[in-house]
UniProtKB/TrEMBL annotation:
Entry protein name: Tryptophan 2,3-dioxygenase
Cited InterPro entries: Trp/Indoleamine_2_3_dOase-like, Trp_2_3_dOase
Pfam families assigned: Trp_dioxygenase
Gene: kynA_2
Tree of life domain: Bacteria
Length: 239
């Protein structure tokens, strides 16, 4: 059997054969290369999303299980922190795509047909995990279960702050993930608006207006409970 090496381990031959541009190869080379750039940016996003979905799903499962704290709480903090970092990477990729020249994009966009990022199954799964459209998602419910297993509520975790130990770190990491997701959406709206303005999306939505409505901050209950501490502090402090 052939010895394992870099390309056979990573299957780079398969990976690097997947960037199939749609614009005819006879088109201007700069335009073909711009479409290649567009495909690489999207495919890279999907690869990182695969890791984010797996990490967040495991964090959810660990938080809802009743295992030892080191295996559940501490490991889920690690997974959430990694996802927050990967969302930063995804955000950077949106910024890199701002270097797609508009004059090239207008040439190959018609070849996208009705394909649209809104059809990304993995992004939809992240939305279900984090909660989209102002609703709490699977991760927050798992966090509530976890707090319950430890004999407290999320409100108490917020009140305890740093003395809440692992549960406090989970709350902080959830918000880092939520803010990272929100930042990605804002950057994506900026990119989209810069590239197509008020035009409709290839997926058939109104584009700008649709994406603006889709931007919400995940974990609204956690944010509300943390904010409520200010009112409690004011009520407790002498006039
Ligand atoms: C030139 C670059 C881009 C443009 C012009 C663009 C445009 C759009 C538009 C107009 C929509 C609304 C749906 C539609 O009608 O098509 C959309 C949604 C979306 N796009 Fe992009 N996009 C770009 C880059 C990206 C990249 C790099 C990704 C990463 C995979 C991505 C992922 C998404 C996702 C996940 C949605 C759904 C967002 C939501 O529902 O909140 N897009 N995009």
């Amino acid at each position: 059997m052939a010895e394992l090496n870099y390309s056979s381990y990573l299957q780079t031959d398969v990976l690097l054969s997947l960037q199939r541009t749609r614009i005819p190869a006879t088109a201007d080379r700069t335009v073909v290369l711009a479409e290649h750039f567009f495909i690489v940016a999207h495919q890279s996003c999907e690869l990182w999303l695969k890791q984010v979905v797996a990490d967040l799903s495991l964090a959810r499962d660990l938080l809802s299980s009743t295992g030892r704290p080191a295996d559940t709480v501490d490991t889920s903090v690690e997974l959430l922190q990694r996802s927050a970092e990967l969302l930063r990477v995804l955000h950077e990729q949106v910024l890199a795509l701002e270097r797609l020249p508009l004059r090239h994009f207008v040439r190959f966009r018609p070849y996208l047909g009705t394909a649209s990022g809104a059809q990304s199954q993995q992004f939809m799964t992240v939305g279900e995990l984090l909660g989209d459209s102002g609703e709490e998602g699977e991760l927050y419910r798992a966090f509530e279960d976890c707090a319950d297993h430890h004999g407290c509520t999320v409100a108490e975790v917020c009140r305890l702050g740093i003395t809440g130990g692992g549960l406090h770190r989970v709350a902080e990491a959830l918000l880092d993930v939520g803010n990272g997701y929100w930042r990605w959406k804002v950057a994506h709206l900026g990119l989209m608006s810069k590239m197509v303005g008020g035009q409709r999306g290839t997926g058939g939505t109104t584009g700008e207006e649709y994406l603006m409505r889709r931007i919400t901050l995940p974990f609204p209950e956690l944010r509300r409970l943390r904010g409520a501490l200010h009112a409690e502090e004011l009520a407790a402090s002498p006039a």
